[in-house]
Amino acid sequence: MNLLSVSHLHVNFQVKQHSLPALIDVSFTLNRGERIAIVGESGAGKSVLGFSIVNLISKPGYIKSGSVKLDNKELTKMNLRQLQEVRGKRIAMIFQDPMMTLNPVLTIGQQLVETIRSHTKINYKDARNITIEKLHNVQISSPEKRFDQYPHELSGGMRQRVIIASVLLLNPDIIIADEPTTALDVTIQAEILQLLLAICRDNGVALVLISHDLGVVSKVAERTLVMYAGQIVEEGPTLEIINDPQHPYTQGLLNALPQMTLPGQRLNQIKGSMPSLTERPTGCAFHPRCPYATDKCRQESPSFIYSGVSSVACFMIEDMIDETDRDEDEQL
Amino acid sequence: MKHLKKDILHPISDTRMSHIWSGIIGDKLAVLALIIFAFYCLVALLAPLLAPFDVNDVHFMDLLNAEIAPSWITHDYRFLLGTDAQGRDLLSVILYGTRLSLTIGICAVLIQATLGICIGLVAGYLGGRIDNFLMRCADIQLSFSNMMVAIVFLAIFQSLFGMALYQQFAMIILILVIGLSEWPLFARTIRASVLAEKQQEYVDAARVMGFGSKRIMFRHILPNTLSPILVIFTIQIANAIIAEAALSFLGLGMPSSEPSLGALISEGFAYMFSGSWWICVLPSVTLIILILAMNLLGDWLRDHLNPKVYKD
Amino acid sequence: MLIFLLRRLIQACVVMAIISLISFAIQDKLGDPVQQMVGMSVSVEERNALREELGLNDSLLTQYGRFLQNALQGDLGTSYYYKEPVLDVIFDKVPATLELAFCAILLVVLIATPLGVLAAINPKHWVSRILMVITSIGLSIPIFIVAILMMYLFSIEWNLAPSFGRGQTTEVFGLWHSGLFNQDGLSHLLLPSLSLAIALMPIFTRLIRAEMMEVLQSEYIRFAWSKGLSSNRIYFIHALKNTMLPIITIGGIQAGTLVAYTILTETIFQWPGMGFLFMDAVSRVDTPLISAYLIVVGGMFVVTNTIVDLIYGLVNPTVRLASHGL
């Protein structure tokens, strides 16, 4: 049985009188100890997906329909009290910018201890000991000293370590990491990523890594979901997606990586930009930027089908599969 | 100063007016506030025509008519809103009082705005030590509230010149004191806007094209700081009117021979407990409605134009 | 912290210098002190002798120096009306004003904070909406009308509390006449402090609401939610502390408004405090008293602002960074 299953999730944003779709029919599953990645440009709805799992979408957004099940328990229907049991304890989150994530007026220790004490009955001294041990685990030097310091006294990388420690305090089943290294220096990015990977591996924690960087994803995730304009357009094992991308958008993302270009050449950007919520194109949302777009793409939206390598939502692939089927039929 | 938002202003000014206009039509409360304000302005302008009695007439004050209750109580239709303790028709006095209060309020804020905009532009544009010094002054000035500064200065003026002379120039002194005491609010907002605008490319472009710094300041930056100015302007008029009323109430403002709304309330206060409540209540209500309309208008403008007003 | 205190000190000195100059100017230029002292019946020669004796013929700078020297020794002159050292007259009235201001501030903090927080947490709730309407009306009612209304309703119509004066006072520690320790004093305090509080409350309720709403949007609050903390902990530990930082600063700025408002309240309720004394002094042209009032209020001002900054430093950990840097 799957640890987490998201099915047909629709999330909308209420802007004045209009209800604008931000997530459209998103489905995926996550097994215990599995590491998956959600990839896409900014504005694709990756973060919205991450937050809607624990029902924490920011204000004008709301879950329109669909379900999110953790161990077969429906999360979207839970009240606040039940959700508080899940948040932090079963599903923990790491945010993008460690500079903004910690409360500036509370000490590191206060913010870590409160996490334990709000979920378990434990006295302050024991909670403090656990906290210091976890700070030690995330390779923070002299954790006793850090315990009484305020966030502004720590560097960005150090703060992200504190946040990872706070996430580990309650041994959650799932960690959702929303671009955990984007705001950090390149040298620290690798360290934090290594740490995160090691922690998930050692404790058997499932990881949902949200990132725009396929390079980062390839090092960590076993399975990858590619998102575009609120929809999943391709899903499959990370290696397959990187070596043999099916959807034109995934191909474009891969080609845009600097490693894919010879020195001195221009980067292969995908032309155009992600449509905003208000100006979503008809048909396949990617068609204005797609080099292979046909009239069909402009009118109908493709469904999600298994291509043999990964699952893709694209008419081109659909047609290819149809053709192979026909070929096989003819051969018979 | 936490959020130096880039999107405080939109760089095109003609569409902004139409934007305000179309927005105000959509909001019933804003329309009501605007109508009330327009009504007050009209009444203030036409007070000499509208008032049933001529306040300059010698017979205007007649102690025989003192303390007559409003017409819906006495059915004495000579005095629609009754008379005050000196036998003056309350409606006429209130009309003239509104005229005075509005004039003082608007003139005082005009002085505030001129002073504040100039200082803010200079501080923001020149920066460095001048900026530092001016903003330090603004800090000190702001930490004394305008009301306190006004009370102190008016008290000094009054003792200095004596009551009789003071009353002759009361209006000009009031305008000056209220006008000079709250410029920092404008100056800070303008300075912040200038600092934000300075980063933008068109200022650089203007400089590259060889325009002098004054020209850049007034031709480019000033039109783009209109929205926050408009918001503060509206709210400050309300504040200035309150300040004037409070000063007059303390006896430091307009004399009772030429009463503003505050002076009327102050006068009525003495008769409040002898049963002649209308002398105090009617001007109070007039004042509150005016200020409420101004505040609503200011709030609406702020929400609609969304400029950050820099108060701290 | 040191830099911070030093800057405060310099600012305080500038403020006090300005005030002392103004006070000096009033004392020197307002009216003729000789005439005030001896009346009309003294000959011109005698007056000139007195002028010389009082040092009124010295240069302005010498006179200002002497004024400052005396001021530093606590001698600000003698009141024309009370015939007593002005500082004694003023300090006699200080307790009344401080008690009034203190009670009003206490009421504002105790009422405005929960209301503002409540309105920020449930902005769509009908209670919050009504609260916003009431506060925006409240912002438009000048304090003296609030005071008149309170007096009329509670004192004249319903006869619940006395409308003027301070009532009975008890002496505390031999130097403080307090109205806080007996029922009569408290009942006299009720209306003035309530009026003052009501005048200040709308703006603070709105400020707290606006700041709180902004804080609730921040990433660290979202992170706190994602940790599964209880709502109370998030609202009152995580959000409120951050909300209070700008409020404390604005509270400091409002100190001047508070002084102006106490003058108005004291005048209306005939509260025997410094404001009432000041207005009396103005109408009697009691110049030494006026200038002494300015100096005392200026001093209180500087002290309040310093205290406000210290509180700010205590609540905001980033301010303490300065002491590490030194």
From TrEMBL, chain A:
<dbReference type="InterPro" id="IPR017871">
    <property type="entry name" value="ABC_transporter-like_CS"/>
</dbReference>
<dbReference type="InterPro" id="IPR003593">
    <property type="entry name" value="AAA+_ATPase"/>
</dbReference>
<keyword id="KW-0472">Membrane</keyword>
<protein>
    <recommendedName>
        <fullName>ABC-type dipeptide transporter</fullName>
        <ecNumber>7.4.2.9</ecNumber>
    </recommendedName>
</protein>
<keyword id="KW-1003">Cell membrane</keyword>
<dbReference type="InterPro" id="IPR003439">
    <property type="entry name" value="ABC_transporter-like_ATP-bd"/>
</dbReference>
<feature type="domain" description="ABC transporter">
    <location>
        <begin position="6"/>
        <end position="254"/>
    </location>
</feature>
<dbReference type="InterPro" id="IPR050388">
    <property type="entry name" value="ABC_Ni/Peptide_Import"/>
</dbReference>
<dbReference type="InterPro" id="IPR027417">
    <property type="entry name" value="P-loop_NTPase"/>
</dbReference>
<dbReference type="Pfam" id="PF00005">
    <property type="entry name" value="ABC_tran"/>
</dbReference>
<comment type="similarity">
    <text>Belongs to the ABC transporter superfamily.</text>
</comment>
<keyword id="KW-0067">ATP-binding</keyword>
<keyword id="KW-0547">Nucleotide-binding</keyword>
<dbReference type="InterPro" id="IPR013563">
    <property type="entry name" value="Oligopep_ABC_C"/>
</dbReference>
<dbReference type="GO" id="GO:0005524">
    <property type="term" value="F:ATP binding"/>
</dbReference>
TrEMBL record, chain B:
<dbReference type="InterPro" id="IPR050366">
    <property type="entry name" value="BP-dependent_transpt_permease"/>
</dbReference>
<feature type="transmembrane region" description="Helical">
    <location>
        <begin position="166"/>
        <end position="186"/>
    </location>
</feature>
<comment type="similarity">
    <text>Belongs to the binding-protein-dependent transport system permease family.</text>
</comment>
<dbReference type="InterPro" id="IPR000515">
    <property type="entry name" value="MetI-like"/>
</dbReference>
<dbReference type="InterPro" id="IPR035906">
    <property type="entry name" value="MetI-like_sf"/>
</dbReference>
<feature type="transmembrane region" description="Helical">
    <location>
        <begin position="140"/>
        <end position="160"/>
    </location>
</feature>
<protein>
    <submittedName>
        <fullName>ABC transporter permease</fullName>
    </submittedName>
</protein>
<dbReference type="Pfam" id="PF12911">
    <property type="entry name" value="OppC_N"/>
</dbReference>
<feature type="transmembrane region" description="Helical">
    <location>
        <begin position="100"/>
        <end position="128"/>
    </location>
</feature>
<feature type="transmembrane region" description="Helical">
    <location>
        <begin position="275"/>
        <end position="298"/>
    </location>
</feature>
<feature type="domain" description="ABC transmembrane type-1">
    <location>
        <begin position="98"/>
        <end position="298"/>
    </location>
</feature>
<dbReference type="InterPro" id="IPR025966">
    <property type="entry name" value="OppC_N"/>
</dbReference>
<keyword id="KW-0472">Membrane</keyword>
<dbReference type="Pfam" id="PF00528">
    <property type="entry name" value="BPD_transp_1"/>
</dbReference>
<feature type="transmembrane region" description="Helical">
    <location>
        <begin position="229"/>
        <end position="255"/>
    </location>
</feature>
TrEMBL record, chain C:
<dbReference type="InterPro" id="IPR045621">
    <property type="entry name" value="BPD_transp_1_N"/>
</dbReference>
<keyword id="KW-0472">Membrane</keyword>
<keyword id="KW-1003">Cell membrane</keyword>
<protein>
    <submittedName>
        <fullName>ABC transporter permease</fullName>
    </submittedName>
</protein>
<dbReference type="Pfam" id="PF19300">
    <property type="entry name" value="BPD_transp_1_N"/>
</dbReference>
<keyword id="KW-0812">Transmembrane</keyword>
<dbReference type="InterPro" id="IPR035906">
    <property type="entry name" value="MetI-like_sf"/>
</dbReference>
<feature type="domain" description="ABC transmembrane type-1">
    <location>
        <begin position="94"/>
        <end position="312"/>
    </location>
</feature>
<feature type="transmembrane region" description="Helical">
    <location>
        <begin position="290"/>
        <end position="315"/>
    </location>
</feature>
<feature type="transmembrane region" description="Helical">
    <location>
        <begin position="96"/>
        <end position="118"/>
    </location>
</feature>
<keyword id="KW-1133">Transmembrane helix</keyword>
<feature type="transmembrane region" description="Helical">
    <location>
        <begin position="9"/>
        <end position="27"/>
    </location>
</feature>
<keyword id="KW-0813">Transport</keyword>
<dbReference type="InterPro" id="IPR000515">
    <property type="entry name" value="MetI-like"/>
</dbReference>
<feature type="transmembrane region" description="Helical">
    <location>
        <begin position="243"/>
        <end position="264"/>
    </location>
</feature>
